[in-house]
Amino acid sequence: MSTNLKPVLARLAAGETLTDNEAEDAFGTIMSGEATPAQIAGLLMAMRVRGETVPELTGAVRAMRQRMSRVEAPPDAIDVCGTGGDNAGTLNVSTAVTFVLAGLGVPVAKHGNRALSSRTGGADVLTALGINVDVPLDRLPGVLRAANCAFLFAPRHHAALRHAAGPRVELGTRTIFNLLGPLANPASVTRQLTGVFDPIWARPMVETLANLGSTSVWLVHGQGLDELTVAGENSVVALQDGTIREFTVLPEDAGVPRAPIAAIRGGDAATNAAALEALLRGATGPYRDTVVFNTAAALIVAHRAGDLRDGAAQAARSLDSGAALAALDTLRRETA
Predict the structure, then answer these.
(1) Which position among 97, 150, 168, 169 has the lowest Cβ density within 10 Å, counted as fewest Cβ atoms?
(2) Where along this sequence does the record place binding of anthranilate 1 (predicted)?
């Protein structure tokens, strides 16, 4: 049992908040295996009931980053991912965006996991596509250079989180850990397009990333999804060179038609993998439009597009030229 956490727990029970340094110490204690399951659960629920703060998120992410297995990446690398937790069961959007970006020469260090709250996670669909998500860590920089993309399988990079796994499962509800994954990319990218399951967390997550040195970020939420949707209006909280602003975007801004969320409903890993490969081979429809829309936003974040229409045109070229499919084939080969 950690005696260091006892006074912290007493303060949290009284409704107090932690500074970033205090949160870093507390989560460092958890991730070092020095806290009991009861202490971990108590800390997580006290924060959840009161509401996690930006300093607490910042300190927790620092503790994660100090203990993660890092991957070298180009300075212009980008991450495209979501928090999960929208329970929508859609086709894999950010995974498809990864290949479209790679086809345009944008290096993507994609952080992800197997299905946790969704039916099919990024690691599940990549495995079904014949990609080895367990490639030795020391090979990942070479994979990223060759394919312009690499998948950073979260459990291998954040082994310290295993100490909180039991309490998280037993609690069975959202905790601060659901917000931390997209904030702790193992390649230390400073540019990212990230979807969030609840728009209330978009600004706190952007403020946290700003505290941690990110320079170009879009945190997005679309009609209940942790990504941009072609179903209607989307909310965005953007960070650019220290300035944070909030706005909305529509599918029409990227020149793509609207469609209901049900039009991109997915299934198991094999189903979603088949749809993703069909997309890269030229399939059209709402799935392509959704991927083009999200890629357009990612290209703005990556400083490769001036607006959504420009980004959408580039995304379409990556798909239509076969460049996105070639990126998938290269990733298969490089991870074999």
Answers:
(1) 169
(2) 82, 113
Which CATH number is 62's domain given? 1.20.970.10
Tell me if 285 is assigned to some domain.
yes
Q: Is residue 135 part of a domain?
A: yes
Q: Which residues are annotated as a binding site for anthranilate?
A: 82, 113, 168
Domain for residue 266, yes or no?
yes
Indicate the annotated binding residues: 82, 85-86, 90, 92-95, 110-118, 122, 168, 226-227
Which residues line the annotated binding site for 5-phospho-alpha-D-ribose 1-diphosphate? 82, 85-86, 90, 92-95, 110-118, 122
- Whether residues 258 and 119 share a domain: the answer is yes
Cβ count near 166 (within 10 Å):
12
The answer to whether residues 61 and 84 belong to one domain is: no
Tens of pLDDT, residue by residue over 10-31, are: 999 999 999 999 999 999 999 9
Q: What percent of the chain has pLDDT over 90?
A: 88
> What's the mean pLDDT in 221-235?
97
Q: Which residues are annotated as a binding site for Mg(2+)?
A: 94, 226-227
pLDDT tens readout for residues 113-162: 875 544 667 889 999 999 999 999 999 999 999 999 999 998 999 999 99
DSSP string, 101-142: HHHTT--EEEEE-S-SSSSS-HHHHHHHTT--TT--GGGHHH
What is the span of the domain harbouring residue 294? 78-334
For the chain, the domain total comes to 2
Q: How confident is the model at residue 273 (pLDDT cuts 50, 70, 90)?
A: very high
Torsion of CA 299, 178, 335, 74, to 10 degrees: 40
